[in-house]
Amino acid sequence: MLKLSRKTEYALMALRHLYGKTTEQLTSSKEIAATYRIPGELLAKTLQQLAREGIVETVQGPLGGYRLKVNLEKVSLTDFIELLEGPVALTDCSIDKNCDQLGTCTIRTPIHRINDTMKNVFNNVTLAEVMQ
Amino acid sequence: MLKLSRKTEYALMALRHLYGKTTEQLTSSKEIAATYRIPGELLAKTLQQLAREGIVETVQGPLGGYRLKVNLEKVSLTDFIELLEGPVALTDCSIDKNCDQLGTCTIRTPIHRINDTMKNVFNNVTLAEVMQ
DNA sequence: ACTTATACGACCTCTAAGGTCGGATTAAAC
DNA sequence: GTTTAATCCGACCTTAGAGGTCGTATAAGT
């Protein structure tokens, strides 16, 4: 039903948390999880993924934690969602073309049109705007 | 990942099929299913639901089938999706407010803003446009 | 050494999507 | 009036993916 996954929600909340801090300051995954009552392990894994993708930076060991790495004005919501959930698309045929109905499908073109419009909405929102 | 359900896809294809016919002409569920290689039972149930909702009209018995009932220009894509899949919303808190994070959530407002924008996209597309 | 943080793969659970089946109802055709 | 071809509809099955947990490894400050 066109929902974001919890992973994405949690990630946005975590980024919002880091957004308020100075560039040097570190925050542990646990602290964020506790603040927002997010399952700790899941948030940790999500932050690790964001670290791999270069969105946040990580420091290990005691006193370690996460901090922002990129300028959130440079990252669109599309980029972010696709990073965590894969391609944004109303239908599978917007991505790979393996579909039984391919030959006979009559709604592909209009759906792709709408898909583009929707994607444009997300393209035009930066993560910085979501933090406001 | 923001996908439409197959049910919705099948429903759109079926409507597109009926759209090309005269107002009197009936088409059986089976014929549509065969034409587009859609699982018959599933399409049948979907068409029944559309009949209950007043989108199509049904005639029982042999030579029976379905035909359009409403003017597709009067139905927005939002209406249609919500009919088949329930509320269009990026997050659950856009619908009912039962969420553990309610008190501490910091991204609710911006998410709702984006949600409204997205919904507007679907509001401004009529089913008739999807048939083109 | 010990502690406290991230790193990460393996696993578990539960829900909903997608699809199937069986039988009931309706009505045209013979 | 029996047969046949369509809708009607609830019950059920299966599977994938979301969401979450666990155990263990690794890194680094004290």
Q: What spatial order of strands do you see in the largest sheet of chain A?
A: 1-2
Structural class of chain A: mainly alpha
Tally of DSSP β-strands of chain A: 2
Major sheet characteristics of chain A: 2 strands, antiparallel
Name the helicity range of chain A.
40-55%
Q: What is the 3D form of chain A?
A: elongated
Q: How many helices of chain A in DSSP terms?
A: 6
Name the pair of protein chains with the most residues at their interface, and give those residue counts: A-B, 42 and 42 residues
CATH class type of the largest domain in chain A: Mainly Alpha
Task: Indicate how many domains the architecture of chain A comprises.
Answer: 2
Please state the oligomeric state of the protein chains shown: homodimer
- Write the CATH architecture name of the largest domain in chain A: Orthogonal Bundle
Distance between the termini of chain A: 26 Å
CATH superfamily of the largest domain in chain A: Winged helix-like DNA-binding domain superfamily/Winged helix DNA-binding domain
What order do the helices and strands of chain A follow? HHHEEHHH
Which percent range describes the beta-strand content of chain A? 5-15%
Radius of gyration of CA atoms of chain A, rounded to a whole number: 18 Å
